[in-house]
Design goal:
Elements lengths: L2 H8 L16 E2 L8 E2 L6 E11 L2 E7 L6 E4 L5 H13 L3 H12 L3 H9 L20 H10 L6 E2 L1 H14 L3 H10 L2 H15 L15 H6 L3 H12 L7 H8 L12 E5 L6 E13 H8 L3 E2 L9 E7 L6 E9 L8 E11 L10
Parallel strand pairs: 1-6
Antiparallel strand pairs: 2-3, 3-4, 4-5, 7-8, 8-12, 9-10, 10-11, 11-12
Helix pairs in contact: 5-6, 5-7, 6-7, 6-8
Bound molecules: zinc ion.
Length: about 350
């Protein structure tokens, strides 16, 4: 395999994981959307094509860049059970050609074709997450009910996957019709069991259209996001800051700062023009490990140290399309951070959104 291909195979990006990734009797604990990957050339999410290939004894999923950069193979150990479940299901379908056509329709951009397919579903079909299926708003309820009750999904999803995808559909399409349908079919326990993953997946400040299912409690939604996920939601809220004024930062955070959140010893807000405005959390004892931060924000970038006694700093970027600001997250550690090392402080620096990639000085 050439170098570009090798790099692509090694860098698989995933939807928030359903852990643990185990597959029993061919049932899916995640949709086939988990096989998607980011295109190395343009960064676009590239969806599973339904085809696989074997390289060096490993079964790779073939994905396609929507930006025209073609197809490439991805492999990831954590997703091996999902690929295996898919392979078993595909080998067992009665009409492989119809199954492949259905897969192409569901992952294609033709909303009318998808609506027609949902109205009269084929006997066997593959399940993708709503983010990968261009379901028209008018067909949202139908998709929701098919996801919850449909018998043709192949491989078959677990009940918790069905519930999460139904709730995700309501959120993604902002559909009250979906919520009504879910309320009649899904228990409150099942809804609350899906909350943490949904909060992580959609990064919404509040449960939006799902609020009636939570008995009106937005606290249940916020409370479901713990620690580093909560930190990420803080960073995302700060992307709405335009002027950098302290009052604006406080309004964007929309949480009490006394006592400081996340068990921090202190929280300090510094107002100022963007790239000088920041929110800092100081921890004693250290908290939020490198492994947790990498897991939620992606692999941190180690910044050059400024001297032998200086802190070790890992940097992460948080960006939201169309927002006025982006946030650089700087985690400081007293020593070279291993996976279980806790940060002494976390600085969320609010930058103008147009600034490209450079972390600059802390
Ligand atoms: Zn691309």
């Amino acid at each position: 395999m050439d170098r570009v291909e090798a790099a692509r195979v090694s860098r698989l990006n995933l939807l928030p994981a359903h852990e643990p990734m185990t597959v029993n009797e061919g049932t899916l604990v995640a949709t086939l959307s988990s096989l998607r990957s980011e295109c190395e050339l343009c960064g676009a999410w590239s969806t599973f094509t339904g085809r696989t290939e074997t390289r060096d004894g490993r079964t790779c999923a073939i994905v396609r860049c929507p930006g025209g950069h073609g197809e490439f193979s991805v492999w990831n150990r954590d997703r091996e059970p999902l690929v295996a479940a898919y392979e078993r299901a595909r080998a067992s379908v009665r009409d492989p050609e119809a199954y492949q056509r259905t897969l192409a329709t569901l992952t294609g951009a033709d909303g009318d074709a998808i609506a027609a397919l949902i109205a009269a579903p084929p006997p066997e079909l593959p399940l993708f997450s709503i983010e990968d299926v261009a379901v028209p708003a008018a067909a949202a309820r139908r998709w929701c009910e098919l996801v919850l009750d449909g018998a043709g999904w192949c491989p078959a999803p677990t009940r918790s996957v069905r519930v999460e995808e139904a709730l995700a559909t309501a959120l993604h399409l902002d559909s009250r019709a979906c919520v009504d349908s879910i309320a009649a079919r899904v228990s409150a326990d099942e809804v609350s069991g899906a909350l943490e993953r949904l909060a992580l997946r959609f990064h919404h400040r509040d449960p939006g259209v799902l609020a009636p299912l939570l008995q009106g409690s937005q606290q249940a939604w916020r409370g479901s996001m713990s620690n580093v996920r909560f930190l990420r939601s803080m960073a995302e809220r700060l992307c709405a800051v335009a002027s950098g004024a302290e009052e604006e930062i406080r309004a964007a955070l929309a949480i009490p700062t006394q006592p400081a959140p996340l068990g921090a010893r202190g929280l300090e807000i510094t107002g100022g023009v963007l790239s000088r405005a920041s929110v800092e959390l100081r921890f004693s004892p250290p908290a939020l490990t490198r492994a947790q931060l990498d897991g939620v924000f992606g692999q941190g970038e180690a910044l050059p140290r400024t001297g032998p006694g200086a802190a070790h700093v890992l940097a992460y970027d948080v960006r939201i399309a169309g927002a006025p600001a982006s946030v650089s997250v700087f985690a400081r550690f007293s020593g070279l951070p291993g996976p279980e090392s806790g940060a002494n402080s976390i600085l969320l620096r609010i930058d103008p959104a147009c600034a490209e990639g450079e972390h600059g000085g802390v």
